[in-house]
Design brief:
3 domains; 14% strand; 15 helices; alpha/beta; 4-stranded mixed beta sheet; Aspartate Aminotransferase, domain 2; 7-stranded mixed beta sheet
């Protein structure tokens, strides 16, 4: 039995000083809202470095990391081969504003792994990837509506901010100010795992929906796997209705296996978006699909999209080296098995301590929802006790374990997490549940 990380009053004096300085010039002291810990309370972390499965804050406190840069660090932090590749490339300069062979190499690795992507365009964030895919879908189909799913998050482009998950769900923002009503009305929302609602919207907006965009495994309302037949049903409906299917694999791309999650569901998207892992922690994202569809994009077609740092050589090197490392035989099986044991252990600890909770997990993604009913969509996810999640988050942080600072996010297991780490996490969770049960 692994030793339980002891709960200790952690000193974060230097972190606090840095954060207070930051608050004066960074909005909320952060560059992305979820990092402000608004829904879990306590002081946001100031991280100084990462190594493998660990982060170290500005006060030298060591944290077992299940955020993993929101999924980007599947290999763990500062993987030697990736760090070496970045250092080498930096000697040659960091950005040229012209094409390099590195872009061709990373594009080749991805298109070989995901056959539905014949052509790809690199961008610098998942938001850019999904925004561009939506524009391409509208341009190619000459239709204006986009259908997304409640609780799914596809980045912060205007068309995706209604009833979105991730940071909006964390902060309880349903409709985002600043998005013109005329544009917001062009985004339709259906409950995840509900094909009937999708059929209904297609009959209501006949021949007007350009695309359906979906997370093949929802991870931004917390983890909600697709019900059996859901993705295949979406594929059938969109084909029949002349709409494109955009599968947003920014989180799931190269996470479940060396390819896209859609391939495990035997579904082929018209457009796939990628990010996070393909950049190995540097800003790389992408969208891709058939050559016929992608050739609508400038300079070949008239659907415009561009980016100063798109295909950045430093980021390409990090992505190439990361994907190279992910081809190691047995790597995914080991990661997914450790994640399975973690999920099982958490379920057992909940049962033993009498705390009501659901652990949704698939591959190396997991979320512990504090609710006694199954979580299959955003409505059921929102029934979770977010105050109890906040208490659990703080109890675990005091035991040196960094979970997502929101009930509506995922825990990510990396290749660096060991079986012993899993044991420690389960023991710390049991301790935390007991503390919660005591009030
Ligand atoms: P970025 O623009 O943050 O690189 O990617 C947007 C995006 C697109 N699609 C999916 C499925 C995503 O999960 C994301 C971003 N994920 C969140 C975490 N749930 C980013 C974390 C943050 O906002 O700080």
């Amino acid at each position: 039995m692994s030793a339980t990380p002891t709960k200790s009053k952690v000193e974060r004096r230097r972190s606090r000083e840095i954060f207070e300085r930051g608050e004066k010039i960074l909005v909320g002291g952060v560059n992305s809202p979820v990092r402000a810990f608004r829904s879990v309370g306590g002081e946001p972390l100031i991280i100084e470095r990462g190594s493998g499965q660990y982060l170290y804050d500005a006060d030298g406190n060591k944290l077992l990391d299940y955020v993993c840069s929101w999924g980007a660090m599947l290999l763990g932090h500062a993987h030697p081969a990736v760090t070496r590749a970045i250092a080498e490339q930096a000697q040659r300069g960091t950005s040229y504003g012209a094409t390099t062979e590195l872009e061709v190499e990373l594009a080749g690795m991805i298109t070989q792994a995901i056959p539905s992507i014949e052509k790809i365009r690199f961008v610098s964030s998942g938001t850019e990837a999904t925004m561009s895919a939506a524009r391409l879908a509208r341009g190619a189909t000459k239709r204006d509506f986009i259908l997304k799913f409640e609780g799914c998050y596809h980045g912060h482009a205007d068309s995706f901010l209604s009833q979105a998950g991730s940071g909006l769900a964390t902060l309880g923002i349903a409709e985002c100010p600043g998005v013109p009503q005329a544009l917001a009305e062009l985004t339709l929302n259906a409950p995840y795992n509900n094909l009937g609602a999708v059929e209904q919207l297609f009959s209501q907006y006949k021949d007007k929906i350009a695309a359906v965009i979906i997370e093949p495994i929802a991870a931004n309302m917390g983890v909600v796997p697709p019900a059996s037949g859901f993705l295949k049903g979406l594929r059938e409906i969109t084909k029949r209705q002349g709409a494109l299917l955009i599968i947003d694999e920014v989180i799931t791309g190269f996470r479940m296996h060396f390819g896209a999650a859609q391939q495990l569901a035997l579904v082929e998207a018209d457009l796939t978006t990628l990010g996070k892992i393909i950049g190995g922690g540097l800003p790389v994202a992408a969208y891709g699909g058939s050559a016929e569809l992608m050739n609508h994009i400038a300079p070949l077609g008239s659907v415009y999209q561009a980016g100063t740092l798109a295909g950045n050589p430093l980021a390409m090197r990090a992505g190439i080296e990361t994907l190279r490392q992910l081809t190691r035989p047995g790597l995914y099986d080991a990661i997914n098995e450790r994640a399975r044991l973690l999920a099982e252990g958490l379920r057992q600890a909940l049962a033993e301590t009498g705390i009501a909770g659901q652990v949704n997990s698939t591959g190396s993604l997991a979320t512990l929802f504090f609710t006694d009913a199954p979580v299959t969509d955003y409505t059921s996810a929102k029934r979770s006790d977010t105050k109890r999640y906040a208490r659990f988050f703080r109890e675990m942080l005091d035991r040196g374990i960094f979970l997502a600072p929101s009930q509506f996010e995922a825990a990510f297991v990396s290749a660096a997490h060991t079986a012993e780490n899993v044991g420690q996490t389960i023991a710390a969770a049991r301790d935390s549940f007991e503390a919660i049960a005591r009030g």
